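Lecture 7 notes: from sequence to structure.

We start with a single chain of 792 residues. Read the sequence below before looking at the structure.
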Amino acid sequence: MHNLSTAAAAGFDTILPLIPVDGQLYPGGTDHDGSTIPATSIPPEARGKVPGSLIGNYWTGLPGWTDYQITPDEIARHDAMGANCGLRMGEHWVGVDLDSTDPDLAQVWVNTVLQHWPRAMIRVGLSPKSLIVFRVSGPPIPSRTIKFTREGQPNQLLEVLDKGKQAVLLGTHPATRAPYQWWYYSGIPAVPPERIVAPTADACVTVDQATLDGLVEALTVAAQQIGWTVGSSSTPGAPDARSSDLNEYKADPEVVAGVLALLPNNLDWDGWSRIGLAIKHELGPDGWPVFREFSSRWASSDPAKAYDEKVTARLWNGLRPNGAVGFGTIMKMARDAGVTLPADLEARRKADASARAAQRTIDQHMAIMPPAVPLVPVPAVTATTQPVRLEHTIDLVLNDAGVPVMSTANVHAYLNNQDCWRGVFGYNEMTGKIIVRSHIPGSRVKDLNRSLSDADVRHVLAWFQRHLFPKIPITDVRNAIYLAADDFPFDPLADYLNALVWDGIPRIGSWLTNYAGVEAGPYTSQVGRKWLIAAVARALRPGCKVDSALIMEGLQGVGKSTLLRSLCYDERWFGDNLPPFDSKDASAYLAGQWIIEMAELTALRRSDRESMRAFLTRQIDEFRKPYATETMEHPRRCVFAGTTNRDDYLTDVEGERRFWIVKCSGQSEIAGLVAVRDQLWAEAVAAYRANETWFLDPDIAEQARQVQVSRVEQDPWSEVLAPYLIRTQQRRCREVTRKVDETKLRSRDFGLRDQRAQSLVVKVARAEGRLDRFLRFHQTGPDRDARHRLAR
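Now the structure, written as C-alpha cells:
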C-alpha cells in the first residue's frame, strides 16, 4: 500500500501517517518522545485512525501531530509499514463528515451536497457514512458538531472538521477491513458515480466560511424535512447557539464597553468570571482589552488580593462561553448595582437590541428549502459490524442491532468526543479531586474550577438519560466522569512554578529579614533560602527528602501566620488546621496543601514528640482519594512551618534538630511580600533547577543546633543536679542519685537501679553539655550497668 505517496502525488500538503489496522504497537506500553497517545491506550478498533510514529517496526502515538510536517523519506518509510493516510484539517483543508447510520438521512445529505456541487468527490468508509473534503479560501473555518435526534433512532451527527482534527484520506477501515472508497459524481443524472483511486487536491471544491455555512444550513433543513430534529450544535471556543436568545447576533462592542465602564468592580470570583464569559461571548478574542480594563478597577481592602494581570489573563484564556451568559447578564448586573445609563448610551443599546431581534425574526421566517431532486445512490459496502463513530479515534460499543449500548465506555466516549462535553472535567493532581472546568450542559451552576459534587453527577445523568440512554444507572455515569477527568490531568502548583521567570535580582536570602522582621545574618539568610528551595523541590519532585521545618517565634499578632499564608499564590495551598500527628486524618489533610502551619507550638509530651518526628520525616503518605476505594501511596509535596510566641517549647534538642528557628522581632510586611512573591518563588525555582541543595551547610547546621539548645524547656531538677555535675568529673551516678535522694527526693524511693532517676540524671547532664564526661567514668565497677542504661 502506498497511501501517503498517493496522497502526496495528488497534491495534499498536510498528510499524516496513521497507525495501520494490522500494525504492531510498541511493546511495554510506554510513551515515545512525549507522545500524547500511549500505546497502551490505543484500542484495536482505533487503529487506522490514530496518528502514529514508528519505533523500529512498532507503532506508537505521534507526538505533536497537529504541527507535523512529513518528509519524503518519512512518506516512503511509513508506506513500507502499511500506514493509513490522514489529512490534517485547518489552514488549507476543511472536512464535512456526514456521520449518519440511517440510510435515508445519509442519502438525503449526499443529495444535498450534490445540489451544491454536482461534481463532488465523496469518501465512504463504513456505509452509509461519508466525508467530503474542501479547500479553504480565507481564514480557517471553525469546527462544528450538530446532533440530530428522532424518537426510537440513534442520534446522528453532522461535523465540520477544522483545526485540531484530522480525517482518514486513504487506507483500510478498521471495521470493514476493506479500503476506504472515493466516488466521483460527474453531475450527469444518467451516469452513475465512478470509483476513483484517490481524490486530487485541485479537484476539491474551494469554500469560504459563508459558503460552508450555507451548506450546513441546507443539510440541517434537509434532515428536518424527513423528520429529524436538531439536538445540539456547538463550536469550540464559541457560544452554543441553542443556549442563548442572542445566538450569533452580537451586541455592539461600544455598547458593551460603555456599560462596563459604569459598572463598579467589587465582584467576587463568581461574578468576575460571569462578566468574563459575557464579554468573551459577545466580543470574542477582541474582548480581552475590555475585560482587562474592567478587571483593573477591582477594589479590594486586602493588600494580598491586589489586581494581578497574570491571574486575569489566566482566567480569560480558560473561559469557554456556552451562550448562557451574554450581554443580558452584564445589563442585569448593572441594574442590580443601581447603574443608570446616559441617554445616548441607553438609546444606542435599545437600537442595537431591536436590530438583533429583527434579524432573528427575518432568519426564522425566510429560510429557503432546497428543491427536491432524485436521490443519487451511494455505493454500499458490506460490513461485519456497524460502529457509530463519534470522532476519528474512538468507536462506541454496539449491540447486535448496531445500536450503542448504555455503558460506562460509551458515556466516556461521548464525554471525550462531543464538543459540548470535551474538557468539562479535569483531574487536579495536587488535590486528587475531580474538577469541573467548564459549564455542564443542562446545569444552571455557572462557577467553574470547583470540585465535582453529587449535584453535578445528577445533571450529567439527566443529560444522558434525556438524550441517549434513558435507563442508564448513575454508577455508569459517575465512573465515566472519573475516566474523562483522568484524561485531562493538570497540576496547578507545578504549572504556577514552571511559568515563573526570575528577573535575576537576589531576594530569597533576605526575605525573612525584609518581610518577617528577622535579624540579618548568615544563619537566618541560609535558613530562609533553603526552606523556600525545599518547598519548590517538594512541589516539582514530590516525595523528595525534606526533614526540616521553619519555626517563627514572635509576639502574638505580628502577622507570622498571615505571612506564611501570603507565600501561597492560591490560598487553598495553605493549611493551618493539621489534625494530630498520629491520627489517620493527618496524611489525608495534606492533599492539595503546599505550606502547612503548625500553629502555637507548645512543649510536647513524649508520645506527641515521637509522633511528630515520624510524621515530619515521612516522604510517602498513604490514604484514600475522595472518590477512590483503595488506599494508595502519595508522594508528599508539602513543607512545614511552625509559629509560637514562646521560647521554651522544645523538650529534647537531639530530637528537634529538624526545627530551623528564627525570631521575628517586628510586624510582618505582608504587602511587600505579596509584591515580590512571584519573584521569590521564581528565584527558588532557578536555584532548584541549578541543583542547589535544600539542606544547611555544616557550620550553619551547628548554629541551628545552638539555637535549638537555647529553646529546650528548663527541667526543674536542673538546679538540683547541675552543681553535682559541675563540681566534679569523678562523681558517679550512685553518688549523684544518693545526694538527690537525700536532698530533694527523700519522700520517694529512688535507688541506683531506678531507671527514672538515671534518666533524670542523663537529661540534666545532656542539657548541661556534660553527658560525655559524666559517662566516661562509669565503665567499670558497680556503675557499669547503670552506664549502659544511661548511654541508651
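The mean pLDDT is 77. Keep this in mind for problem set 3.
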